[in-house]
Amino acid sequence: MISTTTLPAGASTEPRPFTMTRGPIRDAALEPIREKVRRGQRLSLEDGMTLYETPDVWGVCEIADGVRRRMHADTAYYNINRHLNYSNICALSCKFCEFFRKKDDAGAYTKTTEQIQAEALAGVNNGATEMHIVGELHPYLPWDAYPQMLRDIHEVAPDLHLKAFTAVEIVHLAKIAKRYKKDDRRTGIRWVLSELKAAGLGSLPGGGAEVFDDRVHDEAYKGKIRSDAWLDVHTVAHELGLNTNCTILYGHIEQRRERLVHMDMLRRAQDLALARKGYMPTRARRDGEETTEWDSAVDPDWAGEISLHGEGATLPTPDAKGGYFQTIIPLPFFPDGSELEHLPGPSGLENLRTIAISRLMLDNFPHVKAFWIMQTLAMAQLMLQSGADDIDGTVVWYDITKLGGSSTHQEVTTWSLCKAIREAGFTPVERDTLYRKVVRDGKSWSVEA
Ligand code: V47
After folding, report:
1. Which pairing describes strands 325-332 and 243-250: parallel, antiparallel, or unpaired?
2. Of 77, 159, 203, 333, which one has the greatest count of Cβ atoms within 10 A?
3. Nearest to 136 by CA among 111, 162, 161, 106
4. What is the Å distance from ligand 1's center to 331 Cα?
């Protein structure tokens, strides 16, 4: 499948010459899609269904790989991070989740300030640039505990970027802070996010989105916020200049079309975020050229599609002020231990296809992440060749899903991440949370301007 030449003897971590040799696209139904993608035209839901239903999975991967290389050449990103799950006690009982516990259940925990600070310090000592902080909907922790948690971490680790709290937690916080009004959600959400930002919040992770569909919501995670509230949180975060991520949790009771609708809702929200920042096809309006670029003159009346896929489109620069979705992280459903344990979960090929389709449908997203913890490092290598440009980081502790066992200690070294990336034919680039290149000098680090 992959041809490599002239490997340096015994040096498996060296970059290797790499040629993609998947061969021609076999399904003619994919040709018009490839052409649309080349021209930077947005794919329709029907195109998405064709990508899901074609037997030519490699053809889908090949098209997605072309886009990925146009956007990122041979760069593949990773970061040095720590995940902190501060508590697993939850007021909800989502059917897909095996992480939550009730207060008196065996294994229920809420970490103390000392434990949290110790984890942050351990992260810094191991070079971490980011702490990814997620819990559950804790029924008893008061609102003040959350901004305090961020301040406590920055007290011992001031340079750690805090990517914290899913949209579901943010709405929960607005409720316990008594700022949440059903008929005016955004005001309370804005208050919470502003307070958290002042306390050190750097960005929002992508969790809690699941699948934006009311039927799926009511069957599998009733009680959680719906898509409108999830999108409200991220929109307000963007308005406040925070970058955010997003996820899709697929391979349980949803249909493939519902996944595509979810992706379409995300790319519409991203159109608005990018337009708000002044990224729009101004040149196209100026002299008829088919290209998009950053422009400081925001046209508030402009509303349309912004694709970053076409030849000549430039990516949002990481040094530009924040306020948009950085990456989509497709999360394959893990049945073990959940109430939906009887379901098989998605196959490896379905995972590969969904990564490729995410790259192709989400034409205005700079990045697609193959989260190695859930995809496996071996599959993440294939995914880098099929649309993904990021594999997340060193992680260390991860409680939400446990691959093939019960340990929450799921750590890889940067050496293993880089080796996996190089073996797949790419150049590893350490990034910070905002996708700026990290430059290291001994124990200290900075980002490239
Ligand atoms: O929101 C819960 C999912 C998410 C299961 O932003 C499950 O960079 C599969 O959002 N099977 C949390 N998934 C993880 C997450 C994430 C991960 C990595 C990077 C980023 C980022 C975000 O995990 C939850 C939920 O959707 N989840 N249970 C399960 N059984």
Report:
1. parallel
2. 77
3. 111
4. 6
Comparing C-alpha atoms, which of 281, 221, 202 is closest to residue 91? 221
Q: Where are the alpha helices (DSSP H) in 200-255?
A: 214-220, 227-239
Q: What is the mean pLDDT of the chain?
A: 88
Q: Structure pTM?
A: 0.91
- State whether the beta carbon of 213 lies less than 6 angstroms from ligand 1: no
Q: What ranges in 103-207 are assigned the alpha helix state H?
A: 113-125, 145-156, 167-176, 185-199
| pLDDT of residue 291 exceeding 60 | no
Residue 411's φ and ψ, nearest 5 degrees, are -125, 140
- What's the CA angle centered on 46, arms 228 and 224, to 5 degrees? 20
pLDDT at residue 19 tops 50:
no
- Rounded to the nearest angstrom, the distance between the alpha carbon of 61 and the centre of ligand 1 is 24
The protein residue whose alpha carbon is closest to atom 15 in ligand 1 is 207
Strand pairing partners for 75?
427
Which atom of ligand 1 approaches the CA of 163 most closely? 6
Q: Tell me, in angstroms, the distance from the centre of ligand 1 to residue 298's CA.
A: 34
Q: What is the C-alpha to C-alpha distance for residues 252 and 232, in angstroms, rounded to an integer? A: 25
Q: Is a pLDDT exceeding 80 seen at residue 233?
A: yes
Nearest to 66 by CA among 95, 90, 33: 33
207 CA to middle of ligand 1, Å?
A: 5
Rounded distance between C-alpha atoms, residue 311 and residue 279, angstroms: 16
Instruction: Give per-residue pLDDT as tens, 23-67.
Output: 788 999 999 999 999 888 899 999 999 999 999 999 999 999 999
How many angstroms separate the Cα of 412 from the Cα of each of 375, 392, 427, 428? 14, 11, 18, 15
Neighbours of 12 (CB within 10 A): 10
CA–CA dist 23, 288 (Å, integer): 35
With a 6 Å cutoff on the Cβ, whether 208 touches ligand 1 is yes
- Phi and psi, residue 447, nearest 5°: -110, 150
Give Dmax (Cα) for the chain: 66
Indicate the length of the chain as a whole number.
449
CB 215 within 8 A of CB 252: no
CATH number for region 28-447: 3.20.20.70
Domain extent listing, the chain: 28-447
Could you report the per-residue pLDDT of 45-54, keeping only the tens digit for each? Answer: 999 999 999 9
Task: Give, using CA atoms, the residue closest to atom 28 of ligand 1.
Answer: 97
126: Cα separation from own chain's centroid: 23
The rounded Å distance from CA 20 to ligand 1 centre is 31
The number of the ligand 1 atom at minimal distance from the alpha carbon of 207 is: 10
C-alpha Rg value of the chain to the nearest Å: 21
Residue 104 has pLDDT above 80, yes or no: yes
